[in-house]
Amino acid sequence: TLDELVSNGTLTPEHAIQVLVQFDKSMAEALETQVKSKATIKGHLHTYRFCDN
């Protein structure tokens, strides 16, 4: 994992953050362009944290 690579000195914390940022960008792009399926999630909101209907 990234934590292990940072812990043993293979990666700097800054590089680990860059990897996470790039992963997020790549996943968002892949979800927009390659995924055709949709999902619906239903549940109960016990704590309001800036969630609207």
TrEMBL record:
The keyword Transcription regulation applies. Keywords: Nucleus, Transcription, Transcription regulation. Coiled coil: none annotated. InterPro entries: TFIIA_a-hlx, TFIIA_b-brl, TFIIA_gsu, TFIIA_gsu_N. Gene3D superfamilies: Transcription factor IIA (TFIIA), beta-barrel domain, Transcription factor IIA gamma subunit, alpha-helical domain. It holds the Pfam family TFIIA_gamma_N. GO terms for biological process: transcription initiation at RNA polymerase II promoter. Its main location: nucleus. Residues 1-31 form the Transcription initiation factor IIA gamma subunit N-terminal domain. Belongs to the TFIIA subunit 2 family. PANTHER family: TRANSCRIPTION INITIATION FACTOR IIA SUBUNIT 2. This is Transcription initiation factor IIA gamma subunit N-terminal domain-containing protein. The lineage of its organism: Eukaryota, Viridiplantae, Streptophyta, Embryophyta, Tracheophyta.
